[in-house]
Write a structure and sequence with these properties.
single chain; alpha/beta; Metallo-beta-lactamase, Chain A; seven-stranded mixed beta sheet
């Protein structure tokens, strides 16, 4: 099993860190987690396209995690995808998909009628909405999904992936929560989001002290992510969804190492990790 970080950024635009997205791949399947800005370009950089993806999992419906959903769908058609899309996501995903597909319906129908391609199966989207927790089996991958705490976002999820006795846990967006500690236990790799304390300054009326407080509050700060990792007893901690995208890497490693006991891996776009 491999984890490829396609996008390690956040809502802020950074050409070095695209929007949140991860690829989990085995010899038999390829699973995409989230589809943030630039996901199709990153797939292209590793010689893949939307036509190669078996299943799309969505952690939650914040725009930075789903903004390139339609780009993923339409580009997969251009890449000759000949099977429907299977999408798993939180309550609200069916409504989201319907609205996005409706928004582009006129343009899509014009393309279909004029370009005369042999298949339109890429536009058939089968959506499954998560319960509070559950299991999914996709070929040789077992997936556990569970709720995390990203309130005021009502529905947000993390995932555990199991393959050949190896375990990968993805936190999704969350403040420290019991389910990460519970389901992330003894992971070979814990991929966890982080809000980096002290790296964002307030900026006039658009980025106030209250703004920073609120954003930090529904993420996991750098002063706590090492503690979370320590409690899960994970072998390797990889940091992603880095807020902000530019920061002092040595300082971040030092802060996390003090709690975790060893250096975290600072995620970078296109980093591929064997699990």
């Amino acid at each position: 099993m491999y984890l490829t970080l396609l996008g390690t950024g956040c809502p802020s635009v950074d050409f070095k860190r695209f929007g949140p997205s991860n690829l989990i791949s085995t010899n038999k399947t390829k699973i995409l987690v989230d589809c943030g800005s630039g996901v199709t370009q990153r797939l292209n950089q590793i010689n893949l396209s939307g036509s190669d993806i078996d299943v799309l999992l969505l952690t939650h419906l914040h725009s930075d995690h789903v903004i390139d959903f339609y780009q993923l769908i339409i580009s997969s058609w251009h890449s000759y995808r000949t099977k429907p899309w299977i999408v798993y996501g939180p309550v609200g995903t069916k409504k989201f998909v319907k609205k996005i597909m409706n928004a582009w319906e006129d343009e899509r129908e014009l393309r279909i009628s004029y370009e005369a391609r042999s298949s339109i199966k890429a536009f058939k989207i089968i959506v499954n909405e998560f319960k509070s927790e559950g299991n999914i089996k996709i070929k040789d991958l077992k997936i556990k999904y569970f709720e995390v705490d990203h309130k005021p976002v009502k529905y947000a999820y993390g995932f555990c992936f199991l393959n050949n006795k190896k375990k990968l846990t993805i936190s999704g967006d969350t403040r420290p929560c019991e389910n990460i500690m519970k389901y992330g236990q003894n992971s070979d790799v814990l991929l966890h989001e982080v809000f980096i304390d002290g790296e964002i300054k307030k900026l006039n009326k658009m980025r106030t002290k209250q703004t920073l407080h609120n954003v930090r509050k529904y993420h996991t700060p750098s002063t706590l992510v090492g503690k979370v990792a320590k409690l899960t007893k994970c072998k390797k901690l990889v940091l992603t969804h880095l807020v902000p995208t530019r920061f002092n890497e040595n300082k971040l490693k030092k802060i996390v190492r003090e709690d975790f006991g060893k250096n975290p891996v600072i995620g970078k776009d296109l980093l591929k990790i064997k699990i």
